[in-house]
Write a structure and sequence with these properties.
The chain is of the alpha+beta class and about 180 residues long. The chain has five helices and seven strands. About 35% of the residues lie in helices and about 30% in strands.
């Protein structure tokens, strides 16, 4: 087995990227945190966010960046950053947001999340004319501690839709 390689995501990654996103969301929020999403809401969310066509569109978004961690042809983790769309009165599209940082359950502990976070933050700093932003589920204390270690502070709250279900999220800001 070789070491994981971090690289920019490519259009041909859409299917594998979507599958990783779908699996990691379920492993983290359904299996891990036990959020009781109604099946129809969960499936609608997963399809809208991780099916191949929506993933291809997101990969092609202007002003956004995607990175993947790959080992032996398998995607293990990914990060996505781009123009901020969080519902905060001070957030602007010219500010950058870390939208997703997902690490497969069996790849956790390899340092991939930290590597992708550092890479994302460096890119965000270079492309933002203001603060950096992150939305994080209010119950994910581990992620909140990680982001706090990188200088992020709570700046607000909002409801994040998962189908008709809503997750209570914190808005974090640095700068």
């Amino acid at each position: 087995m070789t070491d994981a390689v971090i690289r920019l995501a490519r259009p041909e990654d859409a299917i594998a990227l979507g599958a990783l996103g779908r699996r990691t969301f379920v492993d983290t929020f359904v299996t891990g945190f036990g959020i009781p999403y109604p099946e129809a809401d969960l499936n609608a969310f997963l399809d809208a966010n991780f099916d191949p066509e929506p993933t291809r569109k997101k990969l092609a978004e202007s002003g956004a960046a995607w990175w993947v961690a790959e080992r032996d042809g398998e995607l293990l983790a990914f990060a996505n950053a781009g123009p901020c769309a969080l519902p905060h009165s001070e957030a602007q599209p010219s500010h950058m947001e870390l939208r997703r940082l997902y690490v497969a359950k069996d790849a956790q502990g390899l340092g991939l999340g930290t590597t992708l976070l550092t890479l994302s933050l460096d890119w965000m700093e270079a492309h933002s004319d203001g603060p950096l932003w992150i939305g994080v589920w209010s119950g994910n204390e581990k992620a909140q501690r990680l982001y706090a270690a990188y200088g992020f502070e709570k700046a607000g709250e909002y409801d994040y839709p998962v189908g008709a279900w809503t997750d209570h999220e914190f808005i974090l800001r640095r700068g």
